[in-house]
Structures are given as structure tokens and as C-alpha cells.
Design a protein that fits this description.
Layout (H helix, E strand, L loop, with lengths): L12 H19 L15 E5 L3 E2 L4 E8 L3 E9 L3 E11 L9 H4 L7 E4 L7 E10 L5 E10 L10 E5 L1 H7 L19 E3 L29 H10 L5 E4 H6 L9 E7 L2 E3 H12 L3 E7 L4 E6 L4 E3 L9 H4 L20 H4 L2 E8 L11 E3 L17 E2 L8 E5 L2 E4 L2 E4 L10 E9 L2 H12 L9 E11 L1 E5 L5 H6 L3 H14 L2
Parallel strand pairs: 2-8, 9-11, 9-12, 12-14, 13-15, 14-25
Antiparallel strand pairs: 1-3, 3-6, 4-5, 4-7, 7-8, 10-16, 15-16, 17-20, 18-19, 18-23, 21-22, 23-24, 24-25
């Protein structure tokens, strides 16, 4: 997502101080913590958890790191798909309160392992929700949440579709401990590093009865990927699961699949992730981006994949800038110094899209105009030129990716000046608009400081291209909205993409 300095109406200084003060008070409260004695009566019951990794295969061991001021707590692990399937319960687990270090956001909580769990062979690939419940005085309860993904023990043997969850984006927005890549650190409105070794703030995974992080609408499993997965499994599709960093650290699994999926808000990509997926495409693999704001920022993994670095707008402070390693500069993938616009991967970019039904374009129709109804993507929809896709659904919203284009004979064509592949075909469009600060930043990043060549107006662009394999993009974060609404046309298009590209 684009900069909170340039967007979010440039948060007022008093709001920044309020956020910082709240974070500081939370850290102080945690830092005074200790093992809970029998005679202690904590003012507010709490429990938090994180796992030692983001994904596992059957046979591997999960380490759970837990902090609570309750004497005892219970554990429930459930696979979340079309249904919520509880696979493990434990009770009467001893509670220990752990301190939250001042640098927890950037370097992790470093809590001891409270519990280890062997992943049984019977646990299916999928997203697993970890729920801890603590009971205190007078029956008061507290809930803590974590998650992990189980990868298939037989990659590509049971399905040719792999969904990689946007876990880098989850963690970029996570403000547990006070900072994220959007708030905190030495720069009041932006941190440079985030650790995965800390709990997720409430709201990113579900909606527990706790005060939600202010950033939770912009990232996390709950908003986009969960409804997509529920639809997939109800519709009878089998898929294997992975996380963003598996594209970097386990690229060997890619060769077993025909189709890789990105869903929702998939904003932060490392160079190895992108290298491996582009090779997959060149070798004949297919990718479907039911997502927007994709690969907007380049990041670097650290701590063996347990942390991310991204200097974003402050790229001149990045050691790789100072050292001349511009290929891995942690700023916009479209930045002129990196010379690798994300259009080359996805066909589109947020730099040429913007917002719809949000911020600078709050009253849009939330729908695409169809321009190439005879394309295989629209088979069975009975669309005609100029028909509307997603009317009354808010199918287009939040952040949108587009490309430079012009019209000939009533049809849109890419200019290709922005890196969009030569055979990219625009299927449908919806107007989108950049925030004024985004326009300035994008112009400076793409063309040089002081330029004004980027325009505010853009579009959500749905399209496809082929380069060995085929790539499809919705150019928008909100596609899951149509599936959640059980819209027959959105379902038909989704099936067309899945069926054609997975075989």
C-alpha cells in the first residue's frame, strides 16, 4: 500500500503522538511482567501467542511462544477452509508472563518456547488458526490468536493449484509492540524493519473481542483470503497452501504445480520470490492474481526469513543504496534505480492504478466495464461490449493496479511504456485515482526528483498475457467480495481462470 505519510490524510501530529504513547505504555506494561504468582490479581487478563515459523510440512515441529498473566490456559488448533475443523485441543497448560522487549517489533519478542507440537501426517494442507483462551478471576476470559500454514507433504500430487498467502503484507502492517512498516521507529510514520517473531495484533486473523489494530482493514487473512478459500473448497476445488516466504526459501515446490494464486493484498515481495515465480512462468507455469497492489514494494528477508526490511520512501538510508546494490534496493519495484517495474510480472502496477471507493475516489461504481467479452475469461457470462461486471457488488474497491493505455476503435490497448508485457490484453477497466501525494512520489521515483509526469487518474485493469505460461490479473484487491456474495458471473469467471490455467 502507498505511504501513510502521503496518504491517510497525512496523520496529524497529535495522532502520531497518541499512537506512540499507546505503544510505549503497552511496552512498559509488558516489561514489568514476570511469572504470575498465586496471589497476584492482574488488572487486565491477557494472552498472546506466535509460532516459530509461518509454514510447516507434516513431520515437522511447531514451536508455540506464549505469554499470559493467567495461571492456566487452553489451546485449540483448527484448520479453516469451507468449514472450521478442530484438530487439537489441550487444557490446563501453565501460564507464564513474558516481557515484550522495546525492539520486539523489529527483532522479535524472543519468548521461550511454551509448547511444541509435531505436525501429524493426517493434517491436511491449509491455514490453521491457533486460539488460546485464558480464564481469570470472576470468570473473565481473554483470547489470543496465532496461525500457521501446513504445506503439502506431496506437492502437486493431489492438486495442481498452489495458493501462497500474503504473509509478508500481514507482517508489514502488524503493529504489535508499537511499530510496523507504517508507524513507529525513528520516523514517526514509518518503520524500516519488522519481525515475524511476535504476535499479530487483533483483527488481522479474525475479529476477537479486543481492541483492533488501526491497520487491520488493510491486511490479514480475514478480509480477502478467508472468503476466497471458503468459496474454493465449497466449490469442490482442492488446493495446496504456502506462504510468501516459501516462494523464496522453498522454490522447489513450484515446479510441481500448474497454477499459483495470489489473493487480496499481496504488496511486499523479495527479489528471490519474484525471481522464482518469473522463472516458473517462463518455464510454462501459470499465475492468477486475484489481488491488487501486488509486488508494490521490494523487501529483503533477514533472520532466515523471520524478518523483513523495507526503507520505502527513505531508500537513501538503505545500506544497499549506499553500497550501490540497487537491484535489491528496498523501495518501489517500479523505482527508476531498480528498473524492474512489477508490470513485467503482473502486467499492471499501483503506480498506474490507485484507489476506488476509497480515499481519493470514494464514490465510484465499484464495477468493471467489459471491453473484450469474447475472451475465454468471460466464457459463459453472455457479456457484450460495454457491459458492467460487479454492479451493486463493490467488486472494485480499495487499491487497484493498472497500466498506461489508450483507445483505438473503442478498445483499450496498453502503451507498453511502463513495462507491461507486449502481448498483455486489457479485458475490463474501472476508473481509479491516486492520492495527490502518491502522484508526486511516483513521478519522482519513476522519472526523477521534481518531475510531474505521473497523472492522478488511473484504472483497475483486468487482463492477461502469456510468456511461456499465462498470467491473469483482476487489477484489484476486492475480487473475493464477489465470491462471498455468491455472484454467478464472478463465480463463472473464477472457474474459467482456475479450470483453464490449472490443467
Amino acid at each position: 500500500m502507498s505511504d501513510r505519510v502521503k496518504s491517510e490524510a497525512k496523520l496529524a501530529r497529535r495522532d502520531v503522538l497518541k499512537v506512540a504513547a499507546g505503544a510505549a505504555s503497552g511496552i512498559l506494561a509488558h516489561s514489568a511482567a514476570r511469572t504470575v504468582a498465586d496471589d497476584e490479581k492482574p488488572e487486565e487478563l491477557m494472552i498472546d501467542v506466535y509460532t516459530d515459523r509461518l509454514s510447516y510440512q507434516p513431520g515437522e515441529q511447531i514451536g508455540l511462544h506464549v505469554s499470559t498473566n493467567a495461571r492456566k490456559y487452553s489451546l485449540e488448533i483448527a484448520r479453516v477452509g469451507a468449514d472450521r475443523e478442530v484438530v487439537m485441543r489441550k487444557s490446563e497448560l501453565p501460564g507464564v508472563r513474558c516481557s515484550v522487549p522495546p525492539d520486539a517489533s523489529t527483532h522479535g519478542c524472543r519468548w521461550p518456547t511454551a509448547l511444541t507440537i509435531d505436525v501429524p501426517g493426517g493434517w491436511r494442507t491449509g491455514y490453521y488458526n491457533v486460539v488460546l483462551r485464558a480464564v481469570g478471576a470472576e470468570g473473565k476470559t481473554a483470547v489470543g490468536e496465532g496461525f500457521f500454514v501446513v504445506r503439502s507433504a506431496r506437492p502437486g500430487q493431489d492438486t495442481k493449484i498452489l495458493l501462497q498467502l500474503s504473509t509478508n503484507t500481514y507482517n508489514a502492517y502488524n503493529d504489535f509492540g508499537g511499530t510496523s512498516l507504517y508507524v513507529g521507529g525513528e520516523r514517526p510514520l514509518q518503520g524500516d524493519r519488522v519481525s515475524f517473531a511476535r504476535p499479530m495484533s487483533p483483527g488481522f486473523l479474525s475479529r476477537p473481542d479486543r481492541e483492533l489494530s488501526r491497520w487491520h482493514p488493510y491486511a490479514g487473512w480475514h478480509r480477502w483470503e478467508r472468503p476466497f478459500v471458503e468459496w474454493l473448497e465449497h466449490a469442490g476445488y482442492k488446493i495446496d497452501y504456502a506462504v510468501n516466504s516459501d516462494l523464496e526459501f522453498h522454490p522447489e515446490i513450484l515446479k510441481e504445480y500448474r497454477l499459483v494464486l495470489s489473493v487480496g493484498h499481496d504488496e511486499y515481495w523479495s527479489k528471490p520470490m519474484r525471481d522464482h515465480l518469473e522463472k516458473f512462468i517462463t518455464d510454462g507455469g501459470n499465475v492468477a492474481f486475484f489481488s491488487g497492489n501486488v509486488a508494490y514494494w521490494q523487501v529483503r528477508s533477514e533472520d532466515d526469513g523471520r524478518a523483513l526490511v523495507c526503507y520505502k520512501f527513505n531508500y537513501e538510508d538503505d545500506p544497499h543504496f549506499k553500497g550501490g546494490d540497487l537491484a535489491t534496493l528496498s523501495s518501489l519495484w517500479s523505482h527508476r534505480l531498480i528498473q524492474r517495474p512489477e508490470n513485467q510480472l503482473t502486467g499492471v502496477s499501483f503506480c498506474y492504478g490507485g484507489y476506488h471507493r476509497f480515499r481519493s475516489a470514494p464514490k465510484g461504481a465499484g464495477a468493471y466495464t467489459v471491453y473484450r467479452p469474447d475472451h475465454w475469461v468471460f466464457a459463459g457470462t453472455e457479456f457484450k461490449w460495454g457491459d458492467i461486471l460487479g454492479e451493486n457488488l463493490d467488486l472494485v474497491g480499495y487499491e487497484c493496479d493498472g497500466c498506461e493505455y489508450g483507445f483505438r476503435d473503442g478498445l483499450p490497448y496498453p502503451t507498453h511504456a511502463d513495462g507491461t508485457p507486449e502481448n498483455f490484453e486489457i479485458l475490463a477497466l474501472c476508473p481509479a485515482s491516486l492520492w495527490p501525494g502518491d502522484v508526486e512520489f511516483h513521478s519522482n521515483a519513476l522519472y526523477g526528483e521534481g518531475t510531474t509526469r505521473r497523472r492522478q487518474r488511473g484504472a483497475a485493469v483486468m487482463g492477461t498475457y502469456t510468456r511461456g505460461g499465462t498470467v491473469f490479473t483482476t487489477g484489484c484487491t476486492e475480487w473475493s467480495v464477489g465470491l462471498e456474495a455468491i455472484d454467478p458471473t464472478v463465480e463463472r469467471i473464477t472457474r474459467n481462470v482456475l479450470d483453464r490455467l490449472s490443467t
